[in-house]
Amino acid sequence: MADPTFDIVSKVDKMEAENAVNQAQKEIAQRYDFKGVGASIDWSGEKLLLKASAEDRVKAVLEVLEAKFIKRGIGLRSLDTGEPYASGKEYRIEVSLKNGISSDDAKKVSKIIRDEAPKGVKSQIQGDELRVTSKSRDDLQAVMALLKGKDLDFAIQFVNFR
What's the CA gap between 39 and 45, in Å, rounded? Predict the structure, then answer.
């Protein structure tokens, strides 16, 4: 029988993201402090475009969006938030969703596993995910606990635990 394995991925559930955006749009439409400031959240391809008439209002729109993402179980590390910029008479912020682990981040995680994980645990980079293998399931669970305790600058999930 093959050794136990699991995959480390960084993916955002598209439906949960859309639900969070819809909830944020409803709240912005109903809140009194957003009346008359042109506040909106729209999908622009794979990115979200936040708009408002003033810089502090567009930052408030971002806070509402972040709160809805947290409520839906999507970590803020999976959001790539730009700086507010002026576009005509309105301010905008572009927010993109991070999917996949970059090769640099995969190397960081692989190094953590190599240095701090129990002996006999191996990691292998496969595209935009990492496969972790060991003879013992307990070692794999120790690796999961180790990585959850680390302060990584990207969101990770553990899938395909076999």
Answer: 19
Distance of CA 81 to the CA centre of its chain: 11
- CA pair distance 103, 129, nearest whole angstrom: 9
Using the structure block, give the residue that is written with the tokens 């899938």: 159
Per-residue tokens: 121:
């645990």
Question: With contact defined as beta carbons under 8 Å apart, do 155 and 101 qualify?
Answer: no
Residue 99 neighbours by CB distance under 10 Å: 13
Q: Which residue is associated with the tokens 């971002």?
A: 62
Domains of the chain: 5-11+101-159 (3.30.70.860), 14-97 (3.30.70.990)
| Chain segment 48-93, per-residue pLDDT in tens | 999 999 999 999 999 999 999 999 998 888 899 999 999 889 999 9
